[in-house]
Amino acid sequence: MTELEAGHAQGLAPVRGGSVLQRYRDVLIALVAFAVLASLPLLTGSKALLDFVIRCSAYGLFATSLNLLVGYTGLTSFGHGMFFGLGAYSFGLIMQKLGVPIPVAFVATLAITALIAAVIGAICVRLKEIYFAFVTLAFQMLIHSTILSWASFTGGDQGLRGGIPRPVFLGIDLSNHVHLYIASCALLILGLLAMRQIAQSPFGYTLRMIRDNAARASFLGIDVWRAKLTVFVLAALFAAMGGMVMALFVSGAYPEFAYWTISGEGIFINMLGGVSTFLGPMVGTVLLLLLNDTVTRFTEYHGIVLGVVILFFALGLRKGLLDFVAEWFSQRRDAGEGR
Q1: Which pTM does this prediction carry?
Q2: Which is nearest to 250 in space by CA: 174, 164, 178?
């Protein structure tokens, strides 16, 4: 801070340049990834593969948003799935009841999610460790119970019936499966890019400081409560985006989207992929969906298989797959430099 105040611009130049290069590199990678995903319908006629990518888009946004809390801020939420369900139900109800254009419903859903997340987060982020985890779970159970009991509005345990209207906007027809696929990929890439920028921003490093030592961060003048509330709301918005993608995919919304098991799957995904690397949750998403699709094809005891996988990662690797790979490459690089 003394150097900054003294105006040592020469020392800051490489940092700013590196930040700009990092930003452009991320954008370039995002564009290449979207181009690859968008070309899949031209390379294959497999509807199952496109469906798999759409599901990965929905759960990938949800799991990566959860990692903003777990991996970057040290807030383990057992109720993050409520925002996935909230996004699906809010979007579906707005389209069914109001019949507005899809972009308007999208923005309105994010606004509703942000408001509810701000209220819930203002209560939860004041708590520590296990209390935060279980209070978020309690709020998720409350929202799930509301969905079940308010049958006249939400459809109760039958979910939203009648499908979600998909009026054409800007030449995009989401009732067309390829258009829906492209839109889902675009939302995934944009969401991941936005979360990447958050994680690599000064705010993202503030979250890491809070995760490592909240008391020290507070002594340094950081408003810990406000930072935690901000990331709580941001994570809720990206989870709601995943819920909207899923609602469009299944053309409805169901109570299972807001049930506590969704949050459990989010934690499981982060355990599989890893929380210390940004793309860990995406790797975990692909692994979990592949496991579910493969195991359920051969046995009805898929829970046992998933339990064995959890034990392997927890007791064997002791970290997520991408975390393990990144650490292995780092050790190899260090060993090579030491020769």
Answers
A1: 0.89
A2: 164
